[in-house]
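sry for the spam today, last one i promise. struct tokens for design, 319 residues
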């Protein structure tokens, strides 16, 4: 049995904020942000929108475009690091909103690598528990956790959600081929280079980051995990149609390709319109690439991401 991604829908908040908009209230410029990150604009959730709102919107779209009924779902797994409340989980809120009362539901938190973690968890559970249909969502309102006076972090992030239907298939040619996860939280330095700290911001804390250090780890660790997952599965970059990485920063992806001799023309990049939407960024990029006719049914995709923790990992999926 294989786990196949059979459909995907996304939701982006209506409000779009450009770099020029940010520069009206912050000592920054479009030129600075664009040349260092590739970001031109980002979607920002309104005060009324929380992470579960985005997750539910993406799920409703998925339900409309696929033939799936809420009662068909065996489980709902949400990747998020920005849940509305410590508990209940965002997944339980989605389950209640759509009336998927047969489904069990829980959240996965692995920061920006959360989608790959949640995909691996869903795949394993589908196999071990013989689940047939699982709703996998990555939803984030990370802009609610930035200090809008800190120009070194606030310009980098955006909000969004992607909802995927995972179905068990007996067709061994498609689906999730492999997943590989890593974490390193042992060393203090890993916990301090990218975190969410303090009790300000209504007890939510703010994102703090050592940008240059994160930049370096993102390149090294994403490249290492892609190489290891390909080697372990006797595959090479020639077997991959598209790399869909976490969309933190265009320059990270360009530098990684240049330094490791990866094909940049195989990399899906949506940072310009979405910015860094944490764990939602890979589903958002996949939907965008499908809509633009880049990714096609039958393509083999390599997902990779790095996030706070540090957490990182990769997945190979034939869609
Ligand atoms: N606008 C204008 N100037 C800014 C700025 C902004 N938004 N943010 C920082 N600066 C300034 C700094 O204050 C510093 O000024 P100084 O030299 O007078 O002290 C200067 O720009 C350089 O800062 P630095 O942090 O060294 O810049 P950088 O070239 O490393 O770029 C990042 C900063 C954040 C874009 C870059 O380090 C990066 O992309 N890191 C990875 C971040 C990331 O993707 N994190 C998420 C991973 S999941």
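last one done:
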């Amino acid at each position: 049995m294989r786990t196949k991604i059979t459909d995907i829908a996304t939701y982006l908040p209506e409000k779009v904020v450009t770099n020029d908009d940010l520069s009206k209230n912050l000592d920054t410029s479009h030129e600075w942000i664009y040349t260092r990150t590739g970001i031109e604009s980002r979607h920002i959730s309104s005060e009324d929108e929380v992470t579960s709102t985005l997750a539910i919107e993406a799920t409703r779209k998925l339900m409309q475009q696929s033939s799936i009924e809420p009662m068909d779902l065996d489980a709902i797994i949400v990747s998020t690091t920005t849940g509305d409340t410590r508990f209940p989980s965002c997944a339980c809120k989605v389950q209640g909103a759509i009336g998927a009362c047969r489904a069990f539901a829980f959240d996965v938190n692995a920061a920006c690598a959360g989608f790959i973690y949640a995909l691996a968890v869903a795949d394993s559970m589908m196999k071990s528990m013989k689940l047939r249909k699982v709703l996998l969502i990555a939803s984030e309102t990370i802009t609610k956790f930035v200090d809008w006076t800190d120009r070194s972090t606030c310009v980098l992030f955006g909000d969004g959600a992607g909802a995927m239907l995972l179905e068990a298939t007996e067709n061994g040619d498609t689906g999730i081929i492999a997943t590989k996860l890593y974490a390193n939280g042992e060393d203090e330095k890993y916990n301090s280079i990218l975190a969410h700290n303090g009790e300000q911001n209504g007890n939510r804390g703010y994102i703090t980051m050592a940008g240059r250090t994160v930049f370096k780890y993102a390149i090294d660790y994403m490249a290492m995990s892609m190489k290891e997952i390909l080697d372990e599965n006797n595959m090479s970059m020639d077997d991959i149609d598209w790399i869909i990485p976490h969309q933190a920063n265009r320059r990270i992806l360009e530098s990684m390709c240049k330094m490791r001799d990866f094909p940049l023309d195989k990399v899906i990049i949506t940072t310009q319109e979405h910015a860094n939407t944490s764990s939602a960024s890979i589903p958002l990029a996949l939907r965008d690439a499908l809509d633009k006719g880049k990714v096609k049914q039958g393509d083999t995709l390599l997902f990779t991401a790095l996030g706070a923790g540090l957490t990182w990992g990769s997945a190979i999926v034939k869609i």
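The chain has eleven helices and 13 strands. ok im logging off now
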